[in-house]
Amino acid sequence: MNARESVALGELDVVRPAAPEPVERRAGLGVAEFIENYRKPRRPVILTDAAHDWPVYGRGTPDFFRRHYGDHTVRVRGRDYRLSELIDMLEASTAESPGPYPCKFEIAKDFRELLGEVTPRFQYSLPDRQANPLVPQGLFRYVNNLEIFFGGPGGEFPYLHYDVMQLHAWITQLHGDKEFTVYAPGQEHLLYVNPEMPWQSSIKNHHHPDYELYPLLRQAQSQKIVIRAGETLFLPCGWWHTARSLNMTISVAFDQLGPENWRLFVGDVTHERRRLGSPGKALLLGTYLSVLGPLLGLAELGGANRHSGWGRR
Ligand SMILES: [Fe+2]
How far apart are CA 14 and CA 216, in angstroms? Predict the structure, then answer.
């Protein structure tokens, strides 16, 4: 079913979205084909070899992290642990009694030793405009540049969201299996969007939702995607998602701001300024960014915004 259809739900007339297409797994995909078939039309895809050039690729097991970074101190829920201690704790956890999740760390700030292990940034995720000095860097103050997640069996991400400011999400699984529940954009009327944070759903406990409280959620079309060690999920801008660890998992995630999501990015950041009561600032920022977009596009034809490292601030 491709066309949307309207269905009656009690007193409510609800637009029912199309059933999702299965997400493909691709290997050896050319960058031009990726852009044409996935990034431009905003279709998710699993790339089985995108992170092939990372030194950690194929080696990022819990034992690898214990051996090489076991003494590294990490802070979880206000307490310091050695990384080896945290991994022991997560490995010992069960779905019935899950360990803390997400245990995530910003690599460039909290785990710099790892930077070389997850470089280069792969070509599919370029160009990226976040580091461009003409883009106001304050916009990204709450966006982590590059994160590593450690999770034990049953660890559940706490809320349903799309990546803030309509950034594309990239998630690479170093170890274990992670299940994503995803919803295509356009289903916001069914997802109980939090008016204070319009990129998040206000549904509590999304993994086991109370349909009495959230009846419209039943009409939404979701799909589950499991990514395995070595695989990278490309989740285009605006796709709603949440995740859970099926076993001991280690993942690396980052965002992309490129030409295809620029217009939606501008829409989101200006909408946020208006929501916060600054219509004048929203207009100025929107005008500036709307002019800047095509200029960055021209510069990218000449190779701009293609750094293979992770610098931003
Ligand atoms: Fe996300």
Answer: 8
